[in-house]
Write a structure and sequence with these properties.
With about 260 residues, the protein is an alpha/beta fold. It has eight helices and ten strands. Helix 1 packs across helix 2.
Length: about 260
């Protein structure tokens, strides 16, 4: 695992933006795995700027989002489809027909998950998967106790996740309690994975992800099993890491070797 600790959240977004830009330059028809939540929003703003500035293009990209709420259609303002359109897709040169988010109102949610998994495989698998992390260590909506080899499926949310995400829902809006999410096994199949975490409220989850035992109790710890996982955090999110100094030193070596 490559652990990158940067001074603040803007640096984290800039680092991730460089990573995505490099991916698109190397492979314009990349399959991107995308995420929602507050963690990627600055990254998306930066990607929009770079695309509109002519540095990169999404015209040949296919994307698969991690998850969606069961019961919300794509027009619902809290659906992840709506989030993606608003935060990224509506502002870049991507073909929206090649952007995929599970259908939250599919008649048969289990069938929809199976279909989604098959579509990812048919597309050739995800090249670069973006992740945030929940305060309980979840990735996508893989809550603690999720099988480390799980595939896209319906997953009931924990009370803590429902509470953490309640800030997005109005007092009269019904908040879903179930989701469809890529599994941990699906995520681990991506060729490269990048997880972003910022703020002191993520420090405990980041410790579990990076330094804890590999356990279903902290789904993000499964990234320790991935050959090309990069965890990018700001100093606040890194504050509980005992390997912090090593990570900072190793990163200077990494940069030096890249420049050789
Ligand atoms: C949601 C999403 C996750 C996201 C997490 C953290 O539960 N399903 O993909 O990583 O929230 O969100 P935030 O980035 O807002 O802290």
């Amino acid at each position: 695992m490559r652990l990158v600790i940067l001074p603040n959240s803007d640096d984290v977004a800039e680092f991730a933006c460089d990573l995505f830009a490099r991916q698109l330059l190397e492979k314009p028809n990349s399959i991107l795995g995308l995420a929602t939540g507050s963690s990627p929003t600055t990254l998306y703003k930066k990607l929009i700027e770079r695309q509109q500035g002519g540095d990169i293009s999404f015209s040949k990209v296919t994307s698969f989002n991690l998850d969606e709420y069961v019961g919300l259609n794509g027009e619902h303002t809290q659906s992840y489809r709506h989030f993606m359109n608003e935060q990224l897709f509506d502002h870049i040169d991507i073909d929206k027909g090649r952007t995929f988010v599970p259908n939250g109102v599919a008649k048969d949610p289990n069938e929809e998950c199976k279909r989604y998994e098959e579509m990812i495989a048919l597309a050739g698998g995800v090249d670069l998967q973006l992740l945030g992390i929940g305060i309980n260590g979840h990735i996508g909506f893989n809550e603690p106790l999720s099988s480390l080899s799980s595939r896209t499926r319906v997953k009931t949310l924990t009370k803590s996740t429902i509470e953490a995400n309640s800030r997005f829902f109005g007092p009269d809006e019904r908040q879903p309690t179930d989701s469809m999410t890529m599994g941990i096994g699906t995520i681990l199949d991506a060729k490269q994975v990048v997880l972003l975490a910022t703020g002191a409220h993520k420090a405990e989850a980041v410790r579990g992800c990076v330094e804890g035992a590999v356990t279903a109790s902290c789904p993000a710890s499964a990234l320790q099993l991935h050959q090309h996982a990069i965890v990018v955090v700001d100093e606040a999110a890194a504050e509980l890491l005992s390997m912090k100094d090593y990570a900072i030193w190793a990163e200077t070596r990494h940069i030096a070797m890249e420049q050789m």
